[in-house]
Specification:
The structure is a homodimer of 211-residue chains.
Chain A (H helix, E strand, L loop, with lengths): L10 E2 L14 E10 L4 E8 L5 E8 L3 E6 L6 E8 L4 E5 L2 E3 L6 H13 L2 E11 L10 E10 L11 E6 L1 H9 L6 H14 L7 E3 L4
Parallel strand pairs in A: 5-10
Antiparallel strand pairs in A: 2-3, 3-4, 5-8, 6-7, 6-11, 9-10, 9-12
């Protein structure tokens, strides 16, 4: 093996102060709406950089979303398959959907799971959040786990078409390894699932009464 | 434990034909540029849905990007910390950057790693791709692993400010568990790293001559 050479000035993680980022921060000087469509809300801002210079910043404003990792008693996951027009292909995904106005994460997760798959869940746990597009959107996705699943009728939005199916985590892993599962949020859900099952990333469960 | 009830009509993954998605596909009827800024290129299309109805679709056109998982000989990873204005906070990330015109994945990965961190790498492996924003962008991120790292001078773009540091995968895992690491692409890189180190997702390495 060829030895590699680290930088003499390479900082170790232990020396990082994650509470301080003044040397990196950008301040908003000016903000305007650049485009407002049926769906996309694009902002165009001017920022002051850490060195005092100015720069433009454009990004999509997003209401945020919830992704659900729904686990059947036999350990399989409830998954969806949906055509995603921007990319031009169908994707295997965990159920997910955008927040309605003034909606909390659990309420949004319960609603989206029921509408898209027909399932309600008796126990829920909020794993954490992810930021899928930090370069050009403010979107945040809350990650919720759901167990105690009970089947019911699904209620898709007009114009929404998707397959619902069950898969084991071994099947998801094989699809990801082989390039058949490439949706980033779903891959992050698989990371959370593996770490939780290995006892490394704990979850705090709450019982939820069905509406 | 309360028993859950799967849907009687729940399809098992083994019954899925992933090569067929005619019942999900949307066809482009019309396409126009909705907005073109310094950075964002927004399209507004009309599509024909599987049931024959029409619907609008808006999305960001993106050149694609490469993310690098750079591994030192002692197993630590070369990481960055950068302020991301759309979200308004600093993020711990694997090095990444957008494609320049006509640039392949390896060339882009070598360039971005060198410019942002100063490192060159003797061995590279293409793990796969991820799609971070399937709802409203066509962005694809190639995931490359890099070893045999040799330090050099970094060359940041004007107005680019970032910390470079080394961290173990245990440190990354703890940050993700505690909500301090939430960038989706980086979490997907951690999934690939864990699966590769566990011998489950293999990589094919190539030696690369330094320029």
């Amino acid at each position: 093996m060829t030895a590699s050479t680290p930088r003499a000035d390479l900082v170790d993680a232990a020396a990082l102060d994650l509470t301080r980022d003044e040397h990196l921060r950008e301040q908003c000087i000016q903000s305007e709406q650049a485009y407002r469509g049926h769906f996309l809300d694009v902002r165009r801002d001017v920022v002051r950089l850490p060195d005092g210079e100015q720069a433009p910043r454009e990004y999509v404003r997003h209401p945020g979303a919830v992704m659900i990792v729904p686990i059947l008693d036999d350990g399989r996951l409830i998954m969806e398959r949906q055509f995603r027009y921007p990319v031009g292909q169908s994707f295997i995904e965990f159920p997910a959907g955008k927040f309605d106005a003034h909606e909390g994460g659990l309420v949004c997760g319960m609603r989206e799971l029921r509408e898209e798959t027909g399932y309600t869940a008796k126990r829920w746990a909020r794993a954490g959040v992810m930021h899928p597009v930090i370069g050009y959107a403010n979107e945040v996705i809350e990650i919720w786990f759901a167990t105690g699943l009970v089947a019911g009728e699904r209620k898709l939005d007009d114009g929404e078409f998707l397959d619902v199916f069950a898969a084991s985590s071994d099947e998801l892993d094989a699809w990801a390894r082989d390039g058949l599962l490439t949706d980033a949020k779903t891959l992050v859900g698989m990371l959370w699932l593996a770490q939780w099952r290995a006892g490394r990333w704990p979850l705090t469960w709450q019982d939820v009464a069905q509406p």
